User: Fold these one by one.
Assistant:
Number 1:
Amino acid sequence: MEEDLGIIVMDSIKDIGKEVQKELSRIRKTDTDYIVPVRMDRFSNGEAKATILKTVRNKDIYILTDKGNYDITYEMYGFKNHMSPDDHYQDLKRVILAMCGHARKVTVVMPFLYESRQHRKKSRESLDCAYALQELAGMGVSEIVTFDVHDPNLCNAVPLLAFENVYATNNILEEIVRDNQDSMHNLLVVSPDFGAMERARYFAEMLTCDVGVFYKRRDPSKIVNGKNPIIEHAYMGADIKGRDIIVVDDMIASGGSMIEVAQELKQRGANKIYIASTFCMFTEGTEIFDKAHEENVFDKIYTTNLTYINKNILKKEWIKVVDCSKKIAGVINLLNNGKSISPILDDK
């Protein structure tokens, strides 16, 4: 029912929120404004509070948030701080608390799942993603909607919480084919590691082509930026020489590993190289990508707008961003009407 639907759009995801509102109006053939306004206040010591500016009583509420938006700042003790994933997660919880349990149902739509890379525990490590999911469940959240999660098995941490893992795979694939249908020949899909093999296999099946994979051999004696550094990329799969390659992964952080994979492919005689990644963070800037593109190491990166990308990066000729707001709106519309979202889940 239209009247019971409410969408809370956090500051971190305003642009997508506006498009979701437009798409829902189009789908439902109405001019109803579903967005519930929220005010976030920040005190000078860095603490904050959330205020709901419209009733949510007995409504089906969907909270949209992007924990990766580092462009939002706040003042603390006179210093300007960029919001971190932890800040965004805390603000999400503040909004849930501000609803005071009056909503009929609360669904968190977090395309880039908080702490999703810390999804399993080794020795004396924190298990952050599992704990965050359990915390949200304890606060009354009924459902989590995320995209292309790093490890789908982490939903086992909250067996009684509805957990929907949606894929943007087809959106990216359609864009690649649309842009290059007259110039793509003898295709090969490559996974940069075994963790992305399922995505690569799906791409290969859709394109009816071969698939290959790199094995990342790491140095267990060192930790650099929270990870064991890669010392070798060993390739397994079909011959690369003369083929156009699509390299598939769920996320790009600094991008060093992805560029190394592209360089390895070029050394083995690859023709054009396209990189497909749902989330691109560019945590250490784009210098290595600019240099690699100039040297013809790769042709283009295809990604989504499901997490924040700096506007200066969006101007780069080597990046193409695919809009996924319609898919989010479709999921919300089906869930609000009590219908299965299997058609969207199957459309990877």
Number 2:
Amino acid sequence: LERVRALKKDLPVILMGDFNAVAKRNPAYEVLVGPDKFVDTWYAAEKRENEGWNSFSGFKPLKKDGARIDWVLVRGPVKVEKAELVTFQKDGKFPSDHCPVVAWIHLGEHAK
């Protein structure tokens, strides 16, 4: 966060990953998200798909309690059109133990 704060504020910054920390319920999230920090694209999105599902499956059926431990965070001139928790599975099997969290974003002058 200190390194990002040293950058120009008009520079879009994207931080994403498997944080292994539930959004809004973990100190790591509080450190990164908030005023003068990052914005969570999940909550900034104009539209969300598959809301309420866990992003960690552990290769087991998904749970619907909203424990999203994978985040896409942004800062600067960014508009978030859509966020999705991808629940793809084939024959009842997931390709990973995490469901991808994706965001459709517009940067810079396209963020208006």
Number 3:
Amino acid sequence: MVHDYIPVDVDSMPYTQSVQLADNEYEFTFYYNEIDDNYYVDVADYDGNLIVPSEPILLNQALWRSINNEDLPIETIIPLDESGIATEVNADNLGVTVQLCIDDIGDE
């Protein structure tokens, strides 16, 4: 089973990219924080209005899982390693084996 995913390029961080999802187009800004050794994503609407800042990208943890905001994407986006190898998100696997998977397989 292979999910659709949002591509991430750790070598280009920090950067912003447009992401077209089912309900809208969003601006995702990806960056790395050296202090806590984690990757983060900010999500904004198409016009650049920030919806949620500094969401950590954690393996097998849905983004914005504890945030109730109608402006967020309706899809569940989960950093997954479908190969089952990764135990954490890091520079070697993010965008390679760990992808920001759009959990839409059950919808088809």
